[in-house]
Predict the 3D structure of the following.
Amino acid sequence: MTRIQHPLELLAPAKNADFGIEAIKHGADAVYIGGPAFGARYGAGNTVADIQRLCEFAHRYRAKVFVALNTILRDDELEEARQLAWKIYEAGADALIIQDMGLLELDLPPIQLHASTQTDNRNADKVKFLEDAGFSQVVLARELSLNEIIKIASQTTISLEYFVHGALCVAYSGQCYISHAHTGRSANRGECSQACRLPYTLVDDKGKVVTENQHLLSMKDNNQTDNVLALARAGVSSFKIEGRLKDLSYVKNITAHYRQLLDEIIAEYPEFTRASSGRSTWTFTPQPEKTFNRGYTDYFANDRQDDIGAFDSPSYVGEVIGEVADIGDGWIVVNTDETFHNGDGVCFHDAYGDVQGMRINRAEGKKLYPAEIPEELTPGTTLFRNRDQAFERALEKDSADRRVSVTPVLAETDDGFALTLSDEDGVNVTVNRKFGPKSEWQVAQNPDAAQAKLKENLGKFGNTMFVAEPVELKLSQPWFLPVSAINALRREATEQLEAARIASHPRPPRATPAASPAAYPQEELTYLGNVFNAKARQFYEKHGVKLIEEAYEAGNEKGMVSLMITRHCLRYSFNLCPKEVKHLKPDPMTLINGNEKLILKFDCKACEMHVVGKMKKGVTLNLGSIRPAA
């Protein structure tokens, strides 16, 4: 199947409208944000009015706003979700990101639908089904390799979205139930308790301890910096940054970083184009290593590899800066070439592997005066910097500007002048001003200076969203024109152009489903299908599924089941993989955290690890967490 090339879209997270606006300023082509309810990030909700404010800003740059409505829903929540979808559409949003297929059986607005990563999009059959069902974009599983993406792209024409940066869930998204089993807080309903970040002891089937007190389900953070071009060539059209709960400095820094990478690719390879308008400039140099991360990995993009886990700590350790050379009364000396600032944060691993931190009150070259020196710190200890005060201060200020190119053309008319502004997207406006009979017009005494000044004033766009290309004058004579009149003409035209851009924003249309309901790739759905309401059941039955179990959140799975399905494999991590060491067998192992025990089972054919457990006694679903405030 011939694949149509899409522009390369940089998709950034928005905790709220202000964060979304900053992401767009720093170069995002689109942002994703949670609405008042039903978004799969508890604590990241926003009012419809805020979404509308974000849309109005984004659309000036032809940037898009996607709203996450991606939890699974109870029957009594469907109508509320439907009404919210309409309010989001009326606020100007460009797409809904959804997980629950029951929504497709409702009267939704004509808004584009994107399939959340929680719909578990790992293969071409599933992605093709979603395309036929009426989705316009699919968020691929984080675990996919470049070759797997190529295969999916070769068999579909839908836009493919791929996470390029940020935190990694160890389980396939939508296939993790450990939070609900242990706490009643469902990840599929936006309340993950992050059991994957806890310390565990790993025991083999003979009871032998393989390792203890390590964060064995905690992954390093995703960083696809070196794979962006390869991903674009593989068929990815939307490059997604994780982080609807991250702070603003993360959003600014990481968005600017990937904007630079994509712009370099677009400049060098003409088959790729921008997905929105304008160019961003920054007051800082983007540096991903200075933003919170657990160490970086490109995960499975280049197939399975060692060292993808953040086993030592789920905290941010930062950049290696050197070794402690000497310790005195209230001070330390570091053997380093780095420059330090008052307020920097540094840390180190103690003898137990735990992270100990220090705040630097005063820095004098390589001599640092911490607020307190931990007893565990000794000469020779490797230090890391996890807060660069100067870098953070730079990001706290206004740190980006984004401008759309515009060409001003001033022409004379029978009784005045007309200023036409034409922007890079072909939007143009013309403002006319009468200046009385031509017989009364004055010719400039110094024509060259007058025309230079005229062009200068016509090109002054100040704090607006525009930047001028060379000004064109269509005048029969070098007329003298008052600066105040020219400025007023330019201001009015600028306001009209901005309004025209918002009004003409090309809102993406809803995709049309296949004429006949496409067959779902499976005839049976277990609890892994996350069917939590009658409308979702109706959807799958319409698409040929014959046996449908209820979602795990319904509470009907009483025994031991897979609470996580992961591509991460602890046998592989500890050189116990039967594919690598022939005499070994994929016997079960056990993870222990306090009184909690989880069984690990290994599906070597699929190259997956299953974390098996059962519902704790007395656990019930937390029902109120995703509903909007009254």
